């Protein structure tokens, strides 16, 4: 990431899912700026709340000016005044901004000598403009994930057995890869060994990282814990209470693309209304999805005719881990009902059929046993009909044989 006096962008906002390495990127920016002599004042502010920001600002103002103000608000105002008038190079890192509103009146000034880097999971519109550039940080590519595994396991290369499959299963998420390699090195597991434990649905993510062990690569929380605060925040945004159950529904579907119409299907709205004890409309559900998008818990893709929501596989797994058996059964059954309701009677668009079949397959992976109680769910046979209509004879035969084997098991 490059911020320079030659551009109008003096504030870079690193935005993305928890665990993609935003803070690590900020550390790299800070180290590079300091080593190059570009800045003489470098400050790191943990910006998880407005109180934390005010306190850190006041402390920094006192260090820079030698004046202790009676209140954090006054100290913060002194710091902003100093930053605006300073001719020496400065870099301010605002790490882990939980709510953009916490920065109202506290954004560092845009000057020729200063730079600001913000890390956040939020995607709110206020994070753009006014000299700010939002930079979306995503997970590793498959090649980057494999390179990371090779580097971390270089001294014990035999542990790389199954590396490609593990990288794919972990969604190439830096935090998940860091946690996995640390466990592997400590326990002598190969990538295949770790993958077997990861894919065992009887295990939770917590069980793969014993409590109290230090985290690698300066990460602050485990995969299992890293999204809990984001989910809580999303669930508190208007309309309150809608985001969490929507994410539970999304956790059992295809991470690569869930039709957004599914979340506003009658079955979904009926379930939300019953769960929250108040009427939940299609507009409420759509706003709930937007809340999850703002917190980077899913990504809404409205660029094509088929609007979909994409969810990282690790977010799905962490969400599933927090579901009771009854909640998991409800989520699978509800998703199946909603799929049937949004499935067109005539598939004029092959992309629609392919997407719905992919979601049915994901649903079977997440909890097929719930789709056969008390008898086979309609969605299983709707997917079979859809596959038949594509003309893919071999795939259709295989699918029907699989259904038969399951039904007669």
From TrEMBL:
Domain NB-ARC: 13-146
SUPFAM superfamilies xref list: P-loop containing nucleoside triphosphate hydrolases (SSF52540)
GO terms assigned for molecular function: ADP binding
Gene3D superfamilies, per the entry: P-loop containing nucleotide triphosphate hydrolases (3.40.50.300)
Domain spans labelled DUF7779: 243-327
Name of a matching Pfam family: DUF7779
InterPro entries tied to this protein: DUF7779, NB-ARC, P-loop_NTPase
Signal peptide (residue range): none
Lineage: superkingdom: Bacteria
Protein name, as recorded: Uncharacterized protein
Originating species: Kutzneria albida DSM 43870
Lineage, broadest ranks: Bacteria, Bacillati, Actinomycetota, Actinomycetes, Pseudonocardiales
């Amino acid at each position: 990431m490059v911020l320079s006096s030659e551009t109008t962008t003096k504030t870079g906002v690193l935005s993305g899912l928890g665990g993609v390495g935003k803070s690590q990127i900020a550390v790299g920016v800070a180290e590079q700026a300091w080593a190059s002599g570009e800045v003489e004042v470098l400050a790191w502010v943990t910006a998880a709340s407005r109180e934390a920001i005010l306190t850190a600002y006041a402390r920094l103002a006192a260090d820079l000016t030698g004046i202790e103000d009676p209140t954090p608000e006054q100290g913060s105002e002194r710091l902003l005044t100093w930053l605006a008038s300073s001719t020496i190079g400065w870099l301010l890192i605002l790490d882990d901004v939980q709510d953009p509103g916490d920065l109202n009146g506290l954004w560092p000034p845009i000057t020729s000598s200063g730079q600001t880097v913000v890390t956040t999971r939020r995607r709110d519109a206020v994070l753009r403009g006014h000299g700010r550039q939002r930079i979306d940080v995503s997970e590793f590519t498959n090649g980057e994930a494999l390179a990371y595994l090779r580097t971390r396991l270089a001294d014990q290369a035999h542990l790389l057995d199954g590396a490609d499959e593990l990288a794919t299963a972990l969604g190439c998420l830096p935090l998940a890869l860091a946690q996995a390699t640390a466990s592997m090195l400590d326990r002598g597991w190969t990538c295949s060994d770790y993958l077997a434990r990861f894919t065992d649905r009887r295990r939770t993510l917590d069980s793969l990282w014993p409590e109290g062990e230090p985290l690698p690569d300066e990460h602050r929380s485990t995969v299992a814990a890293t999204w809990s605060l984001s989910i809580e925040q999303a669930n508190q945004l208007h309309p309150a209470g809608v985001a969490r159950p929507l994410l539970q529904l999304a956790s059992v579907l295809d991470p690569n693309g869930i039709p957004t119409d599914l979340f506003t299907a009658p079955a979904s709205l009926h379930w939300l209304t019953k769960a929250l004890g108040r009427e939940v409309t299609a507009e409420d559900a759509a706003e709930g999805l937007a809340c999850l998008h703002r917190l980077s818990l899913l990504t809404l893709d409205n660029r094509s005719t088929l609007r979909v929501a994409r969810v990282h596989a690790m977010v799905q797994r962490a969400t599933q881990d927090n579901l009771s058996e009854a909640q998991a059964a409800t989520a699978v059954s509800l998703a199946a009902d909603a799929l049937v309701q949004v499935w067109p009677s005539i598939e004029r668009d092959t992309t629609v059929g392919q997407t719905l079949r992919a979601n049915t397959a994901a649903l079977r992976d997440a909890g097929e046993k719930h789709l056969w109680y008390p008898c086979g769910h309609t969605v299983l046979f709707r997917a079979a009909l859809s596959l038949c209509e594509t003309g893919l004879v071999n795939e259709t035969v295989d699918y029907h044989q699989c259904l038969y084997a399951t039904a007669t098991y």
